[in-house]
Amino acid sequence: MTGPTSPARPTHNTTTEGTTSTADTTSTASTSTQPKGYSSPLETPRPHLGHAVASEWTKLISVRSTVWTLGSLVLLVVGIGVLAVSETRSTDYQEVPLTAPALFGLLVGQIPVMVLGVLTISSEYGTGMIRTTLTAAPDRARVLTAKYLVFAGVAFAAIAGSVAVVGLSSAILRGGAGAGAHGGGEWAHALAGCVYVTLLGVLALAIGAMLRHSAGAIAVMLGLVMLPPVVGGMLSMWETLAPLGTVILRYNAPVAIMGLFGLPNADTGDSPGSAVQLLLILLVTGAAVAGSYAVVGRRDV
């Protein structure tokens, strides 16, 4: 006979419970040791206009087009101006300012200024670099403002420096007793002429921003500057259109620059005042700049 069977003891799944307990402990430990958001020990300043200006300055001085255009400007203004000084005498300056020789080179030198203004922005559209620029600095108005500031400063410095070299050369070589009396007003007029040519370059930059095409924008600027004297002269040949032709001959870029330098208009015998010419170019340039902000801000790149 067999004895009574002892009751079966309940079995516990210690392995499962141990594994679960270990997993919970590991999960808790890993959660507690997870890194939080990274905080840089270095101060990160918010982007502002100064950063955009520094970026545009670097881009402008690092491309060959800037060297070629500004070099052409200096060569034309200084070269033609010094040549004009060498071909004059002291008595030739009795009725004209000593800065007049710089005018001859500046009438041609305004073309490189306008070309540089167009290339300052249109070259980025042509190469696709504008996408990188606007990705790094999404504020388009800030980028465009920086371009205007950098270009205007560089262009004005180059123009004024070239005119000053010619004016000083004329004063030193031809400013004797036979040249008559000359004062600081001549230099103020020359400075106004430099501002006018700089504004032409700013106008070219605005046209380039709106057209986004280098050749097209340069063609537009050349037409705006070179065609009015030709068109005005043609219209003056007909009696009915002569008044319109006279107005065009009085208000165009070459005549304005001559008037700002203190020389009369050879076609009409006089020229509008400096304030009128500067106000006119300011209005035209301001309208173009406002249009460039509107177009660049709304249009896809």
TrEMBL record:
<keyword id="KW-0472">Membrane</keyword>
<feature type="transmembrane region" description="Helical">
    <location>
        <begin position="188"/>
        <end position="211"/>
    </location>
</feature>
<feature type="transmembrane region" description="Helical">
    <location>
        <begin position="275"/>
        <end position="296"/>
    </location>
</feature>
<keyword id="KW-0812">Transmembrane</keyword>
<feature type="transmembrane region" description="Helical">
    <location>
        <begin position="67"/>
        <end position="86"/>
    </location>
</feature>
<feature type="compositionally biased region" description="Low complexity">
    <location>
        <begin position="14"/>
        <end position="33"/>
    </location>
</feature>
<feature type="transmembrane region" description="Helical">
    <location>
        <begin position="218"/>
        <end position="238"/>
    </location>
</feature>
<feature type="transmembrane region" description="Helical">
    <location>
        <begin position="148"/>
        <end position="168"/>
    </location>
</feature>
<keyword id="KW-1133">Transmembrane helix</keyword>
<feature type="region of interest" description="Disordered">
    <location>
        <begin position="1"/>
        <end position="47"/>
    </location>
</feature>
<feature type="transmembrane region" description="Helical">
    <location>
        <begin position="98"/>
        <end position="121"/>
    </location>
</feature>
<protein>
    <submittedName>
        <fullName>ABC transporter permease</fullName>
    </submittedName>
</protein>
